[in-house]
Amino acid sequence: MGSNWKPVLFFCSMYKTPCRKLSGLVGLSVKQKLVQNVTRCNQTAQSLNHLHRIEPSSWLTYQHLSFLKRQYVAKSSCELHQHAAPKQALVLTIVDERDDRVERREHRIPTIDPVVTDVEAQPKISNLDPTTEDVAVQKASISSTVMTSDETPPLQVEMDEMTESHKERQWKQLKLDVSDLGDIYARLAKIRLTALVVATAAAGYAVAPVPFDPVVFFMSSLGTGLASCAANSINQYFEVPFDSNMNRTKNRPLVRGQISPLHAVSFALACGASGVTLLTLAVNPLTGFLGAFNIFLYTCCYTPLKRLSITNTWVGAVVGAIPPVMGWTAATGCLEPGALLLAGFLYSWQFPHFNALSWNLREDYSRGGYRMMSVTHPGMCRRVALRHSLGLIGLSVLAPMVDVTTWTFPAISLPINLYISYLAFRFYRKADRSSARKLFFCSLWHLPMLLLLVLTCKKPHRDQEDAAHPPAALPLTL
């Protein structure tokens, strides 16, 4: 037997030293890991102990155990409880059944004890002759105890209130009242924006170098307003799902259900057809074509581009620049450099106006999913506003060169143009809500003032010049 064990012993002796080295390396690495974790474990224990001493009655969360994907909390009883990660759901109350103190502190309302004492004290005075007042007091106390026993628990009352508030916040269709139809149509057509469009078209008609015709002026203004109402109504019809996510547009008629989509589309078709027909037949075909083209550009190009690219701002500026051209063509029947100059004024003015407006509505536009410069390219938003504010100065200098105004117009319009450029520069430098708000409110009065100055400094047309300077009398000839 001894001879049989010799090869085995020899084989073990060959690997004795390497095995010891391997076990030593493993032990050393384990020891280093333990030494490294001792400090962190001590800090964790100290921090938890410190939090537990500060507020022993509240729940403590063990954030260092988050790698287990659970939330461990402890109470003053030093018990460790495991809870799953909380779901994002509506939780009314959290009551720990093992500790009545939490329930009493959160939901229980202290009852009035004197009522019970009166009932208990009743047998003590039963031997005496009860007076009428005592009987009334006893009946009132008994009825109050019955009422308190029949009252709804506070927790149930709280749940009912939360259910009612949740129902109030839910979407519900409102009934259409005929008396409110005018206000609904006004909000569907964006009446203030339509008024601005009509005003710019009227300014284009007034600046045109032709005699003033009140009938054509009224027809062109009415047709332009109807076209604007149609474009705005179709725009709201397309953007109902997105307007419902924005605070600025969540109260629109289609979003609130005050009017049906079919009713809104019918209103838009009626306005668009009547407006384009009126411009074509009562004014001239060129103005009617511009009105139809502007409806198409606003509803089929600008509206879908708002969710695709920031080029929607430039397309929208073209839409806003067409109404004064329509006023000019309604008066003259043709496109001239003066009409393009007025379009340039409106085109450049819209960038400081809209960029300043959209800057303070970035959260709303982002929530609605609209790709605006203020949301995706904030630096470009400020630069474009400043660039086009300065461009208004150059356009004012160009006005007398195309025989629209006299040379006094660039001089008297320089202060307001410099002021809006200064506010645009502040908006470019600071990029805060205050500078954006000041630039926006300045743009509201800048455009009417600029158009009024253009009308004041309008260059007289040829008929007025001929009437002011009659030709000299021809000499008599034999």
Automatic annotation (TrEMBL):
The keyword Membrane applies. It catalyses: heme b + (2E,6E)-farnesyl diphosphate + H2O = Fe(II)-heme o + diphosphate. GO terms for cellular component: mitochondrial membrane. Keywords: Heme biosynthesis, Membrane, Mitochondrion, Transferase, Transit peptide, Transmembrane, Transmembrane helix. GO terms for molecular function: protoheme IX farnesyltransferase activity. GO terms for biological process: cytochrome complex assembly; heme A biosynthetic process. It is a multi-pass membrane protein. It is an enzyme of class 2 (transferase). Gene3D superfamilies: UbiA prenyltransferase (1.10.357.140). The keyword Protease does not apply. Belongs to the ubiA prenyltransferase family. Converts protoheme IX and farnesyl diphosphate to heme O. This is Protoheme IX farnesyltransferase, mitochondrial.
